[in-house]
Fold:
Amino acid sequence: MAEHKPQPKLVFADDDGNIYDHPELEMLVRRGDRLEPPRPDEIIPLPPESELFLLPGRDALGFDPESGEIERLEDRAVAAFVCPGHTLSATAAYAANPGAPVLPLFAYGAVGFSGDRFVVAAARVDEDRRQVFTGISKDRIVKGARALRTKYPKNHLIEHLCGCALTSCCPAARNLALGRFEAPLPTSRACNARCVGCLSLQDPSSGFPSTQSRIAFRPTAQEIVEVMAEHGRREPRPVFSFGQGCEGEPLTEIRVIAEAVARFRKNGGRGTVNINTNASLPDAVEAFAAAGGTSIRASLSSADAALYEAYYRPQGYSFADVGRSLARARASGLFISLNFLFFPGVSDTEAELAALTDLITEHRVDFVQLRNLNLDPELYLAVAKKSGALANPARHASMGLKNFRKRLRKACPWLRFGYFNPVVEAPPASA
Ligand code: SF4
Structure:
């Protein structure tokens, strides 16, 4: 029998929420509904600015190397919420007890303890530091927000974003206050999708709250241009992004967006003008490009139509429209990113790899952002089961995040990977 290789120890919590490593039991991870030991190549130290969560009503599951059995510790489950720039390759191993509340909108990573530190099953996929705030004093952010409010007292968008920077500590709004990296440009109150894990609008019956409040007004083109011009003066390689967590679907507000972008460009405005979108409206994508947009980030939980539609619950559009939007984006010379909401055990499968490779190749997608799907794992598995996607044998085994990325890159050698919207100053040569 192969010699047992010691694994990181199980991490659990006591009644008061203190977190410990177990003296004997070893860490387990979960991919889809499969429990397994972590892969040697997926364990990294818990990155700084990550958080540890206690999972209510859930028992921690660990492996006993002596008995070869899985042990259950009542009400002791812990998970890691890794800091931006990192993608989870496995979720936390736990068993939910009857009546356990639905978990709020976060990604629940598998965490263990090894040597003298916490470790997690994840990979760093982007070196960009735009969401690292260690070493930046709160004072600087307050001063930056105050200066913006003083300079633009009548600008509702600046008022809204300064509020976000100071109250909900939104990283994008803080970067605007600091005058660095990517500026957020929320515009839309409405959306033509009903994502199960929508960050800005949740039906009370869902059992969990949205993590952001949806913007309640439409900024004017002038207000948007003021934010862009101000940020463009301070950041030498600015990225401007429509489609933030605190809004609906920006393509539904294409008229004001196109007017603002065209005016910004006419005034000599430079930089990457990006739109984060569900890519539901092909004509609006074309209008964005024509106005002077640079890049589009299409949000996708799967390239499988049934699984996509089960999660996005589109209203008046279909997965086929997403494909049409990507075709328009390609024809208009936009840089195309996919915001791929990665879920270990469902995404890193042969079925997803095949579907995603087809989509990326057909539209010559430039970039894949490997994001974590922020949803109660059991809820997502129920959605995926209901869509029928999990009945496909090609979704029964998971190859792991690293293999998935390696094989996707092999199939699409031009493809770049990351986590954040890249700086794209000019339309890509491939257009
Ligand atoms: S597309 Fe965005 S705003 Fe619309 S439901 Fe989904 S997460 Fe919410």
User: Anything to note?
Assistant: The two ends are 56 Å apart (CA to CA). The chain is about 30% helix and 25% strand. The CA atoms of residues 210 and 350 lie 32 Å apart. The pocket of iron/sulfur cluster is lined by residues 191, 193-195, 198-201, 248-249, 278 (CB under 6 Å).
